[in-house]
């Protein structure tokens, strides 16, 4: 059986930023334990992309507010008989830990922006091919340090992002678990639906259909146009797709 391909689309700017941060943090995790120079180069590209977002947006303040909103939603379930109160209490305790970690942390990325080595190489990484040895001899020197020393430095940089990583993962997990939806029949490649204040759409499509979704919308309503990957292939008149809103 073919696995469905999952697409996620944010319905507000804050969730758009959160998904980009998650994407970059996942990239950092994926390459952080690898040893080849090309893997380290990708690590720094992802790290500097992440810092660029953190420089432009007050992520710490926004995430703290969203965690507080989530706390109020969870507390509202405390008097609902059908709710597993033990599990709810565990979630509230985890949430409290993330709130404390976020509030006690410096501005996200601040210590990385103050790091002498990172500061010395960041600008050159914005230039195509700018990480060559003649452009960045200090980076070339770092790449030829023992693997244990390089890994220790990487682990130290990642540790400074730990409050962001864990709090963001927690918020996104609970947001995704709140999804409501099911299978829908898409006619002639187009589908639209009321969003009812949702912040995220999750679309699962069989890749054998040869289409990908283009989404437009906001918290009240969204529309999806399914486009053929190959220009010479037509979109089926009726397609089964799984769509949920969070």
What would your notes on this structure say?
The protein has helices at residues 13-32, 37-56, 59-76, 85-104, 110-113, 116-122, 137-143, 147-159, 162-177, and strands at 5-10, 180-187, 190-194, 200-205, 211-217, 221-228, 238-245. It has 246 residues and is of the alpha+beta class. The chain has two domains: 13-174, YacF-like; 179-245, YacF-like domains (YacF-like, Sandwich), CATH 2.60.440.10. The strands form two sheets. It has a four-stranded antiparallel beta sheet with strand order 1-4-7-2. A three-stranded antiparallel beta sheet has the order 3-6-5, with no helix packed on it. Strand 5 and strand 6 (221-228) form a beta hairpin. Helix 1 crosses helix 9 and helix 3 (59-76) packs antiparallel against helix 4. The longest helix has 20 residues, at 13-32. The mean pLDDT is 95.
Biggest beta-sheet profile: 4 strands, antiparallel
Q: Within the largest sheet, what's the order of strands?
A: 1-4-7-2
CA radius of gyration: 22 Å
Shape: globular
Tell me the β content: 15-25%
Question: Percent range for helical residues?
Answer: 40-55%
Return the CATH topology of the largest domain.
Answer: YacF-like
Number of domains: 2
Q: Please write the CATH class name of the largest domain.
A: Mainly Alpha
**Secondary-structure element series:** EHHHHHHHHHEEEEEE
**Strand-pairing-aware structural class:** alpha+beta
């Amino acid at each position: 059986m073919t696995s469905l391909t999952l697409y996620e689309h944010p319905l507000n700017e804050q969730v758009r930023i959160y998904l980009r941060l998650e994407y970059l943090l996942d990239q950092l995790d994926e390459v952080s334990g690898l040893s080849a120079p090309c893997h380290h180069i990708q690590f720094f590209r992802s790290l500097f992309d992440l810092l660029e977002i953190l420089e432009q947006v007050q992520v710490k303040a926004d995430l703290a507010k969203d965690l507080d909103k989530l706390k109020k939603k969870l507390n509202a379930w405390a008097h609902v008989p059908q709710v597993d109160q033990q599990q709810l209490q565990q979630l509230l305790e985890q949430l409290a830990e993330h709130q404390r970690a976020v509030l006690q942390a410096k501005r996200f990325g601040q210590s990385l922006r103050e790091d002498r080595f990172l500061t010395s190489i960041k600008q050159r990484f914005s230039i195509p091919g700018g990480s060559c040895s003649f452009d960045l001899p200090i980076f070339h020197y770092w790449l030829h340090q023992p693997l244990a020393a390089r890994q220790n430095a990487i682990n130290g940089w990642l540790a400074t992002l730990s409050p962001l990583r864990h709090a963001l993962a927690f918020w996104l997990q609970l947001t995704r678990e709140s999804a409501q939806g099911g299978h829908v029949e898409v006619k002639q490649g187009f589908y639209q639906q009321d969003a009812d204040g949702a912040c995220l759409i999750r679309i699962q499509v069989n890749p054998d259909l040869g289409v990908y979704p283009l989404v437009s919308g906001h918290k009240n309503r969204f529309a999806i146009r399914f486009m053929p990957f190959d220009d010479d292939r037509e979109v089926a008149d009726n397609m089964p797709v799984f769509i949920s809103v969070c």
